[in-house]
Design brief:
CATH class: Alpha Beta
Number of strands: 10
Radius of gyration: 17 Å
Bound molecules: magnesium ion
Helix content: 40-55%
CATH topology: Rossmann fold
Shape: globular
CATH architecture: 3-Layer(aba) Sandwich
Distance between the termini: 18 Å
Number of domains: 1
Structural class: alpha/beta
Length: about 220
């Protein structure tokens, strides 16, 4: 008779699971989505900058504020992005986060995206706002974009390792993401998994401990039977 094992028999291999958001939990790049509201020329210019930053060719800080200045997203548009994130959650992502939480694992979102858009997504995923680390921006009283809200480490190239170090999450800890800024946590995290279900970046996969093409694969990697 074959051995029967269910999810409840499996133990998570990590005490903390830290997830990127854009092109990992959701298929969107939030900044590109916002840029798409401004017409083709702005969208193309910003998508090219995002691609080069994600590939590690140029630094995040050199383009981050510049992209937001070009777009000037309103508060309502950032709220709409939050809805779009929820509509484009990767298959199995929400269930995996739930299973990890039930198993006693700390699930944290670590993103270079806009916090105001990620909070609704986190709510949908069952992740409390206190476990969302992202970029805060300021709007004026009419809801128009003003600027980054002071110093925002996650808007910089080395922001993820710096914030992860400061959080001092329970060990062992795994980071999961698609970009160069996610791979930069190696040395701070105990493991790094390249998520390639949305975008596959060879330079990121090359330095990863494992590759997950979807959340079913991720589930297998995160649990041991
Ligand atoms: Mg990403």
């Amino acid at each position: 008779m074959p051995l029967s094992l269910s999810v409840t028999d499996a133990r998570p291999r990590f005490a903390s699971v830290v997830l990127d958001v854009d092109s990992t939990i959701t298929s969107l790049e939030g900044i590109d989505w916002l840029a798409g509201l401004r017409g083709d020329d702005v969208a193309r210019e910003i998508a090219a900058l995002t691609d080069r930053a994600m590939a590690g060719e140029i630094t995040i800080e050199s383009v981050y504020a510049h992209r937001l200045e070009l777009i000037k997203p309103t508060r309502d548009e950032v709220t709409a992005l939050g809805h779009a994130y929820i509509e484009t959650v990767q298959r199995g992502a929400r269930a995996l986060c739930a299973v990890l939480s039930v198993a006693g694992c700390d699930v944290t979102l670590l993103s270079g995206g806009l916090r105001d858009a990620i909070i609704p997504l986190a709510g949908y995923m069952g992740i409390p706002a206190s476990r969302v680390h992202a970029v805060s921006v300021l709007f004026d009283t009419d809801g128009h974009y003003v600027s980054l809200a002071g110093e925002q480490p996650l808007a910089t190239q080395r922001g993820k390792p710096a914030v992860l170090h400061r959080l001092a999450l329970p060990r062992p800890l795994v980071m999961i993401g698609d970009g160069a800024t996610d791979a930069a946590v190696r040395g701070i995290s105990d493991a790094f998994i390249a998520y390639t279900g949305v975008a596959r970046r060879p330079n990121v996969v090359a330095v990863a401990d494992a590759e997950a093409v979807d959340f079913a694969t991720l589930h297998t990697l995160l649990f041991q039977l």
